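Morning, I've got a small favour to ask if you have a moment. The fold is given in discrete form, as structure tokens running alongside the sequence. I'd be grateful if you could look everything over and explain what you see. No rush at all, and the record is pasted right below.
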Amino acid sequence: MNMPSRLERYSPDLDKPHSDEKQTADAISKTMTEIADKTFADGGHAIRSVHAKSHGILCGKFEVLAGLSAPLAQGVFARTAAYPVVMRFSTVPGDLLDDSISTPRGLAIKIIGIEGQRLEGSKRDSNQDFVMVNGPTFNAPSAKAFHQSLKLLAPTTDRMPDMKKGVSAVMRGVEKTLEVFGGQSALAKALGGEPPTHILGETFYSQLPLRYGDYIAKVQVAPVSPDLTSLTGRPVDIGRPDILRELVIDHFQHNTSTWEFRVQLCANLETMPIDNPTRRWDEAESPFIPVARLIVEPQSGWNSSRSEAVDDGMSFSPWHGIEDHRPLGEMMRIRKDVYNRSQRFRSERNRRPVREPQTADDLKF
């Protein structure tokens, strides 16, 4: 994979807040709190307003590759090292839906013990989080547009499960037809049209950019070991409500699995903009290049104690990290306050503090 001949340099001047950003963040937080209030009232337990359902919770090792060129050896990746990591696989909705309602999948990773100047709000931490979804672009062109779609979905929280299953089946048909002709629809996928394939075969993307030391990048996690690549695109019978979780548990009874962590450096701010989340960065112009690997050995892929420790006791945010990987763009900036409020909501309602793990011993659950 060839590095672009020209790379854009990071500067704080590239990322200026919009004048009404706080009002938009407040509106999104209000709608997300309405979703969380509804699920809490129905279930008596506070869950995330998005990515509520976990399908896999894994502990492993994050290994930075040796011999990286100077543009790639930035931040977390500046030196060869190995760190403990926790990985949380999820689906996007804020209610705990049957897997027959097939929606986009998420992956959040938390790398333990990262040194460097901390981002505001994570001064006491020593971790680096990356939050990803199994599609290269965000599903809304702006924070305001995202809020409008969120408001439409919020009234359906914990309601009309049979209707959601029917809509999901229709949207899967729409998406399948689009893909036959070389297209796809983020909206169709969000409404339940995500192709019902094995979650461990997915490739995950940050979708939104971040600082990469002296440069700007998007990141990707892709399966590379044969046990995972054989699952890519494999159809799954989603007739059972927790089939994705069952598949993760079954897989990690015996398999050691490896993913690559890759970065796509920004080569041209006009064709690879910071603040246009629906614009895909062209991989012909700047490919994703491996900088680390994630290795997970056989273990329990999910159980109630892991769910309690991670779903209830941890939070994941691109703002848990170091300055060299500062989140960039409007949607990333808004995530900081929105994610913090969601964390406080869960912690207060469940009467359980949400804490950052400090060492590998904190991942023994």
User: Anything to note?
Assistant: Residues 12-352 form a domain with the Catalase HpII,  Chain A, domain 1 fold (CATH 2.40.180.10). The radius of gyration is 19 Å. Helices lie at 21-43, 143-153, 161-180, 186-190, 226-229, 243-251, 304-312, 330-350.
